[in-house]
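Key result, reporting period 2: structure in, sequence out.
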């Protein structure tokens, strides 16, 4: 694959992601959610959908035959930590240990730790907990189930019906291409980014921890290149030129500081921004869980992987203290943590784990990788509008989501005019005029849309202007739904079926306006989030589907 052109490499990755007969899936998929209702929702939805192996496919581990039949399996757990969260470091360890208990209880006393240690299975953990402030108001419409935000393209569910695919389902589908290379490892991904690597995705791990990054060239950048690439604004991974290809991490430092700190690697071969996603071997995972067993038991503390795992494990003590000082952390605290991690590292080495593998390495995704980020409202809009474009990136996007026609599972009346650019998935529209829009799961008598994104909506009439987003709306009024240019309108449904409209604007950042009442709303995004806490998302989704069917059938257009 190293001899492939960028286009060929991207196409090969897409082919692996979309192979329905032999899907690339992790043996074990762990979802870390906000609460138990969300955990139940994802365990069912993924087990019956994206993570369900085709009948013709044989997934197996080298353990007993009775256990073979349970793979691939889904383990969803909630992060029931103290206020402020565990951070993605402790959060990863806590979710893994909790998932191990669920596996033992629900799947024939499965010992997941043992299966990983014996290289029988691959496992992936997806972090989805969080408020989703920058994506507001869409997560509110999913009752705080942020990874359940839908995209304007449908996929087939296990019961044969079609539904808009969620962001998390798309991420799980994409990340599976790394599964065959990671038996005996836990991979960790974030639940709102999809990427298609232009570098090889099949590899043999050489380090107990490897982190994904975009390596820029095959030599260390000059001071001018460092600034030009904006490396002073990111967490940066540097890889040694030595035979071991060991790596180290620094964060938001200038070229001179980075050069000084990275001397520990010797001759630097390449650097690039970190993506945050990583994988760890079973022995290192065990060592980390043991080291932080007290915090995990008490559900106390907040540690992230970059500043609290990777940097103290790869940087000299004084350099680490200097970096943490930039974050406002007292030197005494940083020194104590570095000493702690150095002790763990030494014990890990004494047990012989570093004889055949390095400690920390890099996995390059290629500097021509494709990225589709759905973590912000503007990015949700721009990346979904890519369906309309004709460049290579957009072609790959459509191939990834299985979009093979402008109208898929869609019924249009003779009075409905649709331009050649729009994409409609699972829609029923009698009349109207649809231009440069992306729609999924829409049923209406009349739709006039120009440059809009409409997902899971039903109404007699829909009018949607440029850059507007309509989401989860159910309207039986005569006037229907009207969205001006840049309007974002969603519906928030509770367990009783009562619906509340929530609005925003394409120009409003939910993170900045989180506590404000914007666009005429009676509640702030934060207040809606608090009202949604503990919502039974499975029950609400069933209720929403019931209301949708009842309302759409009342129009009599079918």
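The corresponding designed sequence is given below.
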């Amino acid at each position: 694959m190293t001899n492939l052109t960028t286009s060929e490499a991207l196409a090969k990755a897409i082919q692996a992601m979309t192979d329905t007969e032999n899907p690339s899936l992790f043996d074990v998929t762990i979802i870390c959610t906000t609460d138990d209702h969300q955990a139940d929702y994802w365990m069912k939805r993924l087990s019956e959908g994206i993570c369900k192996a085709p009948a013709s496919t044989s997934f197996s581990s080298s353990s007993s035959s009775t256990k073979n039949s349970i793979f691939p399996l889904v383990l969803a757990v909630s992060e029931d930590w103290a206020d402020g969260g565990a951070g993605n470091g402790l959060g990863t360890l806590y979710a893994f240990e909790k998932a191990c208990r669920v596996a033992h209880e629900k799947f024939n006393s499965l010992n997941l730790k043992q299966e990983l240690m014996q290289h029988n299975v691959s496992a992936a953990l997806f972090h989805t907990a969080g408020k989703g402030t920058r994506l507001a108001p869409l997560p509110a419409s999913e009752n705080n189930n942020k990874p359940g935000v839908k995209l304007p393209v449908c996929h087939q569910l296990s019961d044969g019906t079609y539904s808009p695919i969620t962001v998390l389902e798309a991420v799980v589908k994409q990340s599976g291409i790394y599964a065959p290379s990671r038996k005996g490892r836990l991979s960790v991904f974030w639940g709102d980014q999809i990427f298609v690597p232009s570098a090889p995705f099949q590899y043999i791990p050489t380090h107990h921890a490897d982190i994904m990054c975009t390596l820029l060239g095959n030599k260390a950048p000059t001071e001018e290149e460092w600034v030009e690439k904006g490396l002073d604004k990111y967490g940066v991974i540097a890889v040694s030129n030595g035979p071991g290809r060991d790596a180290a991490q620094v964060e938001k430092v200038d070229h001179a500081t980075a050069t000084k700190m990275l001397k520990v690697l010797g001759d630097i071969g390449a650097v690039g921004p970190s993506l945050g996603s990583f994988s760890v071997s079973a022995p290192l995972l065990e060592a980390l869980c043991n080291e932080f067993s007290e915090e995990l038991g008490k559900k106390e503390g907040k540690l992230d992987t970059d500043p609290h795992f990777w940097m103290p494990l790869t940087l000299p003590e004084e350099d680490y203290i200097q970096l943490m000082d930039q974050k406002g952390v007292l030197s005494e605290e940083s020194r104590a943590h570095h000493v702690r991690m150095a002790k763990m590292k030494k014990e890990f080495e004494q047990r012989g784990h570093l004889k055949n593998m390095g400690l920390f390495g890099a996995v390059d995704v290629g500097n021509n990788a494709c990225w589709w980020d759905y973590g912000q409202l503007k990015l949700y809009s721009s990346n979904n509008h890519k369906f309309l474009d004709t460049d290579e990136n957009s072609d790959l996007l459509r191939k990834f989501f299985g979009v093979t026609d402008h109208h898929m599972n869609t019924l249009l009346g003779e009075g409905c005019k649709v331009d050649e650019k729009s994409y409609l998935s699972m829609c029923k529209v009698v009349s109207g005029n649809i231009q440069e829009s992306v729609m999924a799961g829409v049923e209406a008598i009349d739709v006039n849309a120009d440059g809009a994104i409409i997902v899971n909506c039903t109404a007699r009439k829909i009018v949607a202007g440029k850059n507007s987003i309509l989401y989860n709306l159910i309207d039986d009024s005569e006037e229907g739904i009207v969205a001006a240019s840049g309007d974002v309108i969603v519906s928030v449904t509770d367990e009783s079926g009562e619906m509340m409209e929530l609005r925003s604007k394409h120009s409003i950042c939910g993170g900045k306006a989180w506590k404000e009442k914007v666009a005429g709303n009676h509640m702030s995004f934060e207040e809606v989030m608090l009202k949604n806490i503990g919502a039974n998302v499975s029950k609400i989704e069933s209720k929403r589907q019931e209301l949708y069917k009842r309302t759409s059938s009342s129009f009599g257009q079918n």
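The two ends are 50 Å apart (CA to CA). The longest strand covers residues 268-281. This case is discussed further under Risks and Mitigation.
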